[in-house]
Amino acid sequence: MELSHSKVQMYLSCPQRYKFHYVDRLPEKPHANLEFGKLIHEVLEFLHNPRNMKTPALEELMEEFEKRWSKLPETEGMADYKPLGIKMLEDYYQVYVPLEEEVLAVEQRFRLPLENHTLVGVLDRVSRSKDGTILITDYKTSKTLPTQPEVDKDPQMTIYHHFAHDLYPGRPILMRLHFLKFDFLFETKPTDEAWTAAKKRVLGAASAIESGQFDPTPGGLCKYCDYMNLCPAMKHLFKSEDEQTEVFDGIDIKDTVREYIRLKEIVRTSNAQVDELATKIEGYMGVEGYTRLFVDNIVMSQVKTRRPKWDEERLIEVLNNLGLVEEVQGVREDMVNKLLDSDAISAEQKRELESCREIRFSYSLRYKFKGEDKD
């Protein structure tokens, strides 16, 4: 399977949208922010193309911007981006032209084998500094800045870094994220741990795609999606007035939903009342030292349940020290318990893990009525 960072990002954001776009190949309308980002990349490619006999003047750069702007599709909100683009390019030119590094390539496409799959991508600019370091620069037109720790773990930069090492073996590689709106340049050298996480992310998405897992993930971004009228999680909103009477199996669905909610609200209120009464009963039993009550033909018992509680922060620290985070898949309790029951670690290591667990007890009420157990 051929995957890119953007494909994986779309799948993880909403598998259903991925299916509409890449499997069903349904088109999306142009979006102003995406068209703007593409335009800025193209203009900077024009500026830094190593085939240029000389660096274009600022006037030539802005002419290229205007020429490409005139060819953009009509998109809602697009006009708001033009003054931003002009300022972005003028500021960039004043600061970074001429470059102090040698440009080796712009918009360099790559293919990176990953198990049975292929990762593809584009390096915005590949340069060589005076000391021989290979500089991979990725332009961003985002309106927000990430933090340095987020950049250090960024899966896109990590993948590009891994490819650059294959392309320039033995050479020092420095990754750079240039946020043009802020003229802020992040630098990072992704670690082996970041590459392991990026691989797991890609392979996990690939496995889910191959197995046909395309459930929608409704949320705040749905209102921007072009597939709302097709999506199982949203398309009911688009039923016409003529279709408002919905009958299934002889039952009006809307009335059924309303009745369901009415009854659920009754149950929720009743549950709250039950919890309040249980608290009073348990309080009485605790004060009097009772574990069972006998009322009429009811026998009510207080059941004590042993519940381990993990100190997650301490547990992560211990697992990291023991090199076992991957083995237990983070802090999954079932995996930690499995590890404790196995012979994979020493008794001393088990004691260290056990020190992260506090045993707590919870109490609940049960009763017998006419010989039947009820919770």
TrEMBL record:
<dbReference type="InterPro" id="IPR038726">
    <property type="entry name" value="PDDEXK_AddAB-type"/>
</dbReference>
<dbReference type="InterPro" id="IPR011335">
    <property type="entry name" value="Restrct_endonuc-II-like"/>
</dbReference>
<dbReference type="InterPro" id="IPR011604">
    <property type="entry name" value="PDDEXK-like_dom_sf"/>
</dbReference>
<dbReference type="Pfam" id="PF12705">
    <property type="entry name" value="PDDEXK_1"/>
</dbReference>
<feature type="domain" description="PD-(D/E)XK endonuclease-like">
    <location>
        <begin position="2"/>
        <end position="232"/>
    </location>
</feature>
<protein>
    <submittedName>
        <fullName>PD-(D/E)XK nuclease family protein</fullName>
    </submittedName>
</protein>
